[in-house]
Amino acid sequence: MRAMWSGFRTVLAAATACAASGCVIGPATNPPWLTAAMFEEISNAEEYSDFLAARYAGMAGEPAEAANFYRRAFDRQPNDPSILERAELATLIAGDAEEAVMLATGADPQVSAQSPTAQLALVVGEIATNKHRRALARLKTTSMGAINLDAANFLTAWLIGLDDPDAGLAFLAQLPPRRLLAGEQLSMQGLIQLQAGRDDEALAAFEQAARLPLASPGYLLSLRARVLASKGDYAGARKLIEMQVEDTGATAETDYVLALITSGQPVERPKLSIRQGAAVAVYLASAGGVARSSSEIAAMRQSIAVYLDPGFAPARMMLADAFSEQDRTEDAIAALHGVPANSPWGADARIEEAWLLDKVDKPAEALAAADQAMALSRRRDILVGAADLYRVNRNDKQAAVLYDEVVAGDMTTGHQDWRVLFARASARNGLGDWKGAEADLVAALAIEPDRPEVQNFLGYGWVNRGEKVKEGMELIRKAVDARPDQGYIVDSLGWAHYAIGEYDQAVETLERAAELAPSDPEIVDHLGDAYWRKGRETEAAFEWRRALQLKPDPTREAALRTKLDKGLPPVSTTNLANAQQGRP
Question: How does pLDDT run across 308-317, given as a tens digit for each residue?
Answer without folding.
Answer: 999 999 999 9
